[in-house]
From TrEMBL:
PANTHER family tied to this protein: GLUTAMINE SYNTHETASE
Keywords: ATP-binding, Cytoplasm, Ligase, Nucleotide-binding
EC number: 6.3.1.2
SMART domains associated with the record: Gln-synt_C
Protein name: Glutamine synthetase
Localization (cell): Cytoplasm
Ranges of residues in domain GS beta-grasp: 51-131
Main location: cytoplasm
Native source organism of the sequence: Pleurodeles waltl (Iberian ribbed newt)
Length: 399
């Protein structure tokens, strides 16, 4: 049995799961062992009328998030109250040192669950020195597409899977030498021998609710130490804003606990499930009576543009997803397009209830866990609503 007290202090413990025995050292960061009650003493100090605003942005990898904080003289009431700022892009893989200033343009504001009210978290777009979008600022083009399809009222819900790791890169709670028992008891599991890291998951959930992120659920996933949270429904551009902020909050919560959340789509090779970001999508027409016809029309359009979507559904043009979309472990093959009712082995799943009622939404199961939600949602509306058919894509591998 795992002793959580010893666990927290990174002492060796003995773990026995399904016949696998091993010595486990829970690898957590040094900063997580600092006395948090001392920090609370300072966090309770009054700050007058001044407010801390933490700017959050996507760095040059297209996957990492960065942040920095400034003081403003009054509480922002809307995003327009938050001033633009700048940062050194040469230190975030976004600019050369000789011309490194990048602009941070606030686009969505949230409450700060770490410093509490009246402090704020702000999602930002990144612009280059010439005011053009940075290469990994996919929000800009996504917003352009969403404005064109505004009358269709596209809704999205994204299911973000992730895996908890120790800072040594080993799945949190797994035996140091060996593996836990086979998949089966872990999905939506309960019990110390079935789930690892629930404290982190529940803290993240509450932090998102406090922040105003539209988180709508969470569950333990099929592989031990793998979890999922869902964000949505969100209309248009707000899907990407809310999922990116939920990711930032996740990484920030994990920092406090001294572990790492990876969005790698196949963190463990072998007979283990990968991690995706299944995307639920509907338009107003799909949500009305008779909407199944519109769903089927959209799926037909998607079937003719499979390669385009695979390219934009992970930050490396499909290379990451090729490790995950094998046709096994509840995935479709990356090389084939398929669709079906209640079929989790298909590219597109129509929920059984939608098939029975004749309206609702469908689920695109292809996006990888480390996808950019702006890229995914933009691709969906460009194919299904703007009727684009070309195969030209941004070469993600060169970013």
């Amino acid at each position: 049995m795992v002793n959580p007290q010893r666990n927290r202090h990174c002492h060796p413990i003995h773990l026995e799961l399904s016949g696998v025995t091993g010595s486990v050292t829970m690898s957590v960061s040094h900063s997580s062992k600092l006395n948090k009650s001392v920090r609370e003493q300072y966090m309770k100090l009054p700050q007058g009328d001044q407010v801390q605003v933490t700017y959050v942005w996507i760095d040059g990898t297209g996957e990492g998030v960065r942040c920095k904080t400034k003081t403003v003289d009054h509480e922002p009431k809307c995003i327009e109250d938050v001033p633009e700022w700048n940062f050194d892009g040469s230190s975030t893989y976004q600019a050369e040192g000789s011309n490194s200033d990048m602009y941070l343009v606030p686009v969505q504001m949230f409450r700060d669950p770490f410093c509490l009210d009246p402090n704020k978290l702000v999602m930002c777009e990144v612009l280059k020195y010439n005011r053009k979008p940075a290469e990994t600022n996919l929000r800009h083009s996504c917003n352009t597409a969403m404005e064109k399809v505004n009358d269709a009222h596209p809704w999205f819900g994204m299911e973000q899977e992730y895996t908890l790791l120790g800072i040594n890169g080993h799945p949190y709670g797994w035996p140091e030498n060996g593996f836990p028992g086979p998949q089966g008891p872990y999905y939506c599991g309960v019990g110390a021998d079935k789930v690892y890291g629930r404290d982190i998951v529940e803290s993240h959930y509450k932090a998102c609710l406090y922040a105003g992120v539209k988180i709508c659920g969470t569950n333990a996933e099929v592989m031990p130490s793998q979890w999922e949270f869902q964000v949505g429904p969100c209309e248009g551009i707000t899907m990407g804003d809310h999922l990116w902020m939920a990711r930032f909050i996740l990484h920030r919560v994990c920092e406090d606990f001294g572990v790492v959340a990876t969005l790698d789509p196949k963190p463990m090779t072998g007979n283990w499930n990968g991690a995706g970001c299944h995307t639920n999508y509907s338009t107003e027409a799909m949500r009305k009576a008779g909407g199944l016809k519109h769903i089927e029309d959209a799926i037909e359009k998607l079937s003719k543009r499979h390669n385009y979507h695979i390219c934009v559904y992970d930050p490396r043009g499909g290379k990451d997803n090729s490790r995950r979309l094998t046709g096994q472990h509840e995935t479709s093959s990356i090389h084939e397009f398929s669709a079906g009712v209640a079929n989790r082995g298909a590219s597109i799943r129509i929920p059984r209830q939608v098939g029975q009622e004749g309206f609702g939404y469908f689920e695109d199961r292809r996006p990888s866990a480390n996808c950019d939600p702006y890229a995914v949602t933009e691709a969906l509306v460009r194919t299904t609503l703007l009727n684009e058919t070309d195969s030209e894509t941004r070469d993600c591998s060169k970013n």
